Amino acid sequence: MKYAGNKSERLNQLELLLLSHPEGLRRAEIARRLGVHRATAGRYIDELSARIPLWEQDFRVGIKSSQSTRLGHIGLLEGLSFYLGLRYFAENSLYRFPEGAAAIRKLSSFVKTFSPALGKQLDSASDCLDAEDKEVNPAYWEQLERIGEAWLSSRPVQVDFFNGEKTLSVNCLIRDIRMNRDLPGILVGISLLNDGTESERELDLSGIISVEYSVK
Fold it and tell me: Tens of pLDDT along the chain (216 residues)?
């Protein structure tokens, strides 16, 4: 069973390796990067070819791709960066987000057409975002959607939010949206427009009560 598990990991590694080198790699180089003998690498190549289409030309092996099954020339680092961003978002979200998880699953289905291994990892991020042990709070995501609309349209908004025991209201522009590095949750950067002066601050999304477009 341990051998089967190791082989499965090697096949996933081989797939990501070839995906990150659309120009193809020589068998000796594949063996070196996987840390196995060349004959073993050859067996892995044969087994992977039964799972996804490969090409071999001028002593190089690569993954066949077409416009319908290729997301540009996505490389290993690009794919991992994308996955890690989604994983970080999923693990640090305060609340369950089934709509977001469904969107990741749709993306995963497409990614699996050219990288089953990467698609599988996206599925794990989706499951984390939709975990049953997370609290449900649809209003939280509705506020994020409103903030996102205002941010992308660069329109001023009135934001009501909790500040300790008080409720405050400010006119502002949404400057940025990012994950909180210190605690789970999302921070919203705003540029205040009150009293004709502009200053910056950050709000925790969970403390925002409402977001409305400012009336000029």
Answer: 334 446 777 888 888 888 777 788 999 999 988 888 999 999 999 999 998 889 999 899 998 865 334 444 566 677 788 889 999 999 999 999 999 999 899 888 878 877 788 889 999 999 999 999 999 999 999 999 999 989 988 889 999 999 888 999 999 999 999 999 898 999 999 999 876 666 899 999 999 999 998 765
User: CA-based angle 68:74:76, to the nearest 5?
Assistant: 135
**Residue 55: enclosing H or E segment and its boundaries?**
strand 54-57
Q: How many CB atoms lie within 10 A of CB 144?
A: 18
Coil, helix or strand at residue 184: coil
The residues with which 163 forms a beta bridge, in sequence order, are 166
**Domains in the chain, CATH or no CATH each:** 2-63 (1.10.10.10), 76-129 (no CATH), 138-213 (2.30.30)
